[in-house]
Design brief:
18 helices, six-stranded mixed sheet, UDP-N-acetylmuramoyl-L-alanine:D-glutamate ligase, 2 domains, Protein-Tyrosine Phosphatase, Chain A, alpha/beta, 20% strand
Length: 431
């Protein structure tokens, strides 16, 4: 098989939640465990950090991986979804898995895959753990796909579990209530493994406390220990950084982050608490220098994309992957902080989101360019435009993301602001 044939096989032969939704969801870990046994349990050969949450888990994963790399640890990073290349999901020290090992893995184990019929994500996690074991990583930072308890990544026993926050997303699979979602995410809490909750949320904190106590897992709430004082975007050697001032144990500490979204202040707090716990555990040493450099150079070290990323100037074009109610709230907050004349929104969604909850949060003063991301789950742009109209949002619909962006650029002046988002897949197409 060539690399292209291998990728075509992955995408077409195996169900993939990110593309087709419910048909790809497996309500057990049977296939994941079967793959692990078939491969000789590779996930048991390296140490790991497991990260779940509704928003921020990707950013926290990249921040921690960057810090570990700066300290000199050979660091695996498993994230999803990818933007432009499948191999973005599987990295070691910021470098994507080469094409040849992807081809070899699928070719060698294809007969077994066709026997048990794993999902796209199940097979991808098996490939990830196999590659990390083969390459002898010191530690792997592993992001869950959707939930936690039944996620294909949840066969690892990590050194640390992290749950960033809980919001309404994937309710069809994780449960209708916020506590139901919290219980599913809390499924990554393992016996005696320390767990960090990024943000204290009154409505779910008892769920985490109960499960952590049952598992005898020491629990830390990061936001109880780090308090945000102020933040600003600064320039250093021609690059922009988010400078954040925090109060921690009576001291004021300042960190520069290479990710410019204002919501990254929450992810910074979670990442710093994780570094504290890792240092206290005695198995790792993360110096202050490694922590500061890792946070500042997270983009260079890991190649993270799509988080408040500027992709154009005059007019400024910003893209961000926030795609649920909480994410949209955070995006709105930052859009208001950027000086501009007109706001133009290139906006598309997938069809399993809570459409009214998203639409009622979007800025009414913006001009919208509604589009459909090119995946089977993509929401029809005309339907999106019609529904948006009921919420006072006005604009036109386009049959592709890039046509919508081209139209927005044509209509904009140098002092306007174009935002691209609504779905990870919309951002993926412009990147």
């Amino acid at each position: 098989m060539t690399y292209k044939e291998t990728i075509d096989y992955l995408f077409s032969q195996l169900p993939m939640f990110q593309r087709i939704g419910a048909a790809a969801y497996k309500a057990n870990l049977d296939n994941t465990l079967a793959l692990s046994r078939h491969l000789g349990k590779p996930e048991t050969t390296f140490r790991s950090i497991h990260i779940a949450g509704t928003n921020g888990k990707g950013s926290v994963s990249h921040m921690l991986a960057s810090v570990l790399q700066e300290q000199g640890y050979r660091t695996g990073l498993a994230t999803s979804p990818h933007f432009t290349d499948f191999r973005e999901r599987i990295k070691i020290d910021g470098k994507m898995i080469p094409e040849d090992p992807v081809v070899r893995f699928v070719s060698k184990h294809k007969a077994f895959f066709e026997q048990i019929k794993p999902s796209f994500f199940e097979m991808t996690m098996a490939m990830t753990f196999h590659w990390f074991a083969e390459q002898k990583v010191d530690i792997a930072v592993v992001e869950t796909g959707m939930g936690g308890r039944l996620d294909s990544s949840n066969i690892i026993t990590p050194e640390l579990a992290v749950i960033t926050n809980i919001g309404y997303d994937h309710v069809r699979f994780l449960g209708p209530g916020i506590q139901d979602i919290a219980r599913e995410k809390a499924g990554i809490i393992k016996q005696a493994v320390p767990v960090i909750i990024g943000k204290r949320q009154t409505e779910v904190q008892d769920v985490f406390a109960e499960i952590a106590a049952r598992q005898k897992a020491p629990l830390t709430v990061a936001s109880d220990h780090y308090v945000l004082k102020k933040y600003m975007v600064i320039e250093d050697e021609g690059k922009n950084y988010l400078r954040t001032e925090l109060q921690h144990e009576g001291n004021t500490e300042t960190f520069d982050i290479g990710l410019l979204g204002l919501y990254q202040t929450e992810n910074l707090v979670t990442s710093l608490a994780a570094c504290d716990i890792l240092n206290r555990g005695g198995k790792f040493f993360l110096s202050e220098r490694a922590i500061r450099k890792g946070l500042k150079f997270v983009v260079e070290n890991t190649g993270i994309k799509g988080r408040w990323q500027q992709i154009g100037s005059n007019p400024r074009v910003i893209c961000d992957t926030g795609h649920n109610a909480d994410g949209i709230d955070q995006i709105n907050r930052q859009l208001k902080a950027i000086p501009h004349k007109k706001l133009l929104m290139v906006f598309g969604m997938v069809d399993d989101k809570d459409l009214p909850e998203i639409l009622k949060r979007l800025p009414r003063e913006a001009l919208y360019y509604f589009c459909r991301p090119a995946v089977p789950r993509g929401l029809d742009a005309r339907k999106l435009a019609t529904d948006a109209g009921f919420f006072g949002l006005n604009g036109r619909s386009f049959d592709s993301v890039n046509k919508a962006l081209a139209a927005a650029k044509k209509d904009a002046t140098a002092d306007d602001l174009i935002f691209v988002g609504g779905s990870t897949f919309v951002v993926a197409e412009v990147l």
